[in-house]
Amino acid sequence: MRSYIRKVSKQRGVKKVEGNEIVTDALLEIFGLDIMELEEDMDLLDNGLLDSLSMVNLIMYLEVRLGRRIDRKDFCMEDLRSVSRMRAFLSSLQ
After folding, report:
1. Which CATH code for domain 2-93?
2. What does the alpha-carbon distance between residue 84 and residue 88 come to, in Å, rounded to a whole number?
3. Which of 6, 9, 32, 64 maximizes the CB count within 10 A of its CB?
C-alpha cells in the first residue's frame, strides 16, 4: 500500500477521476476485493472485509488519488462502510 501511494504521489498532476473508478481501484489494489463480488450496500466492516486500520489506509489512498487532503470533519466512518456509500462520499467531494 505505501509503495503504491509513493508511486502515485510522485506522478505529476492528478487527473480528475470518477468515484466509481477510485472505489473499484481502492478495493482491488489495497484490499484485493473485487466489487463485482460485493453487493453495493453490503456493510464491509460488519462482514469483516474492512477494519479500522484498513479505513485509515483507504483515506490515505483516496487523498493520493484525489490530489488533496480529506479533512476529518468532511467525513465519518459511515461514509466508507459500503461501496455505495463510498461512491456517494466521493461524489460529494468533487
Report:
1. 1.10.1200.10
2. 6
3. 64
Q: For residues 72 and 29, what is the distance between their CA atoms, to the nearest angstrom? A: 23
Instruction: Indicate yes or no: pTM above 0.70.
Output: yes
End-to-end CA distance of the chain: give it in Å, rounded. 24
What single DSSP character describes residue 35? G
Split at pLDDT 50, 70, 90, the class of 33 is confident
Grid cell locating 75: 467525513
12 grid coordinates: 505529476
Single-letter code of the amino acid located at 6 = R
Cβ atoms of residues 63 and 69 within 8 Å = yes
Nearest to 62 by CA among 43, 52, 49, 75: 75
Burial 24-55 (b: 16+ CB within 10 A, else e): bebbeebbebebeeeeeeeebbeeeebeeebe
Q: Is the dihedral of CA 69, 58, 27, 44 positive or negative?
A: negative
